[in-house]
Amino acid sequence: MAINNTSLCNWHQMASEHETPVIPLLTPYKMGNFNLSHRMVLAPLTRMRSYDNVAQPHAVLYYSQRTSPGGLLISEATGVSDSAQGLIHTPGIWTKEQVEAWKPIVNAVHAKGGVFFCQIWHVGRVSSSVFQPNGQAPISSTDKPLKPQMGMEFTPPRRLRTDEIPQIINDFRIAARNAIEAGFDGVEIHGAHGYLLEQFMKDKVNDRSDEYGGSIENRCRFALEVVEAVVKEIGAQRVGIRLSPFTEHSDSGDSDPKALGLYMANALNKYNILYCHMVEPRMKNAIEIVECPHHSLVPMRKAFKGTFIAAGGYDRKDGINAVAENRTDLVAYGRLFLANPDLPKRFGLDAPLNKYNRENFYTHDPVIGYTDYPFLE
Ligand SMILES: Cc1cc2nc3c(=O)[nH]c(=O)nc-3n(C[C@H](O)[C@H](O)[C@H](O)COP(=O)(O)O)c2cc1C
């Protein structure tokens, strides 16, 4: 996609002429068959309030609070199978009960005119045997253990045999079909933050010697086979993927993250998927920001032919500039949206924001820190 600065110039010009400026972040965007009314996306946010891996009725209010007509929402990470979980009370989408539980939540988002994608997830080795069927070891690309972090301990993983990989790909395919059955408009394949897909993609984790290890092409094979299977099942224009080549969440570093990001952006074009959602290099992990040179997702944005979503550490001004300078089509907001259910409205008015309280990001209360953040009026 061509980068041009025309819209940014117009924006500054109009602002300086004291006319009501058009806010680039709040302009409409056509994402495939979806007519979005603005470019602010609810980032996927794990909230750990889905008791026993079943989405709960309180999520109806939570997601509908964050819905605006023509706004895009991405669900919290949602497990694809009984081996996909690594945390307590995260939702799944592999059983009939789980699919049914999502339906009223999706309906509520649609009733307010939102577009809702389900983030489908397998944690791989970021797990412990207590979350695994029959107390088995978590599965991964490797048997290298993960060091304890953020107060969590992990069971050393078991390296998947080559002949077991098709089964895991099939789990993603069925989860995608289930998401459509639940009413979601599409799925976002979770290929970020050190979880199973990244455990294959990144060379500091993947130490395989079969066709899923070694060269960049081999390391990306698993993720691309997941994409291919999901595309075949639900159609390319309902499929997005999230990638974080630069972050080192859960010990998932790569020796050449830019090459990895570019390889994936180009390879994804072959499948004609709807969007590529990438996490900014300034994110050290899922939530910590570090200093780094700007614009570094631009090569991937230019390489990828579909809709590009950027995420990680954006505020109002940053988001406006990124869209105005055509560095991205859409911007996903995590923590600001978590704490401000009416974030697009607040950005439109340049109104003050509620502060987020990280103490209850991951607590299990159905209201506190979840649906009790106030609206403007
Ligand atoms: C409470 C919390 C839960 C998160 N859960 C997920 C998740 O389920 N899936 C995911 O891809 N990223 C997850 N992230 C990362 C966010 O989607 C986002 O990339 C990150 O918060 C940085 O963006 P921000 O600066 O706008 O918050 C989570 C972040 C937070 C703070």
TrEMBL record:
Presence of keyword Oxidoreductase: yes
Oxidoreductase among keywords: yes
Molecular-function annotations in GO: 12-oxophytodienoate reductase activity; FMN binding
Cofactor(s) recorded in Swiss-Prot or TrEMBL: FMN
Domain of life of the native organism: Eukaryota
Annotated NADH:flavin oxidoreductase/NADH oxidase N-terminal domain residues: 25-347
Keywords: Flavoprotein, FMN, NADP, Oxidoreductase
Pfam families: Oxidored_FMN
UniProt xrefs under PANTHER family: NADH OXIDOREDUCTASE-RELATED, NADPH DEHYDROGENASE 2-RELATED
Protein family membership: Belongs to the NADH:flavin oxidoreductase/NADH oxidase family.
Protein name: NADH:flavin oxidoreductase/NADH oxidase N-terminal domain-containing protein
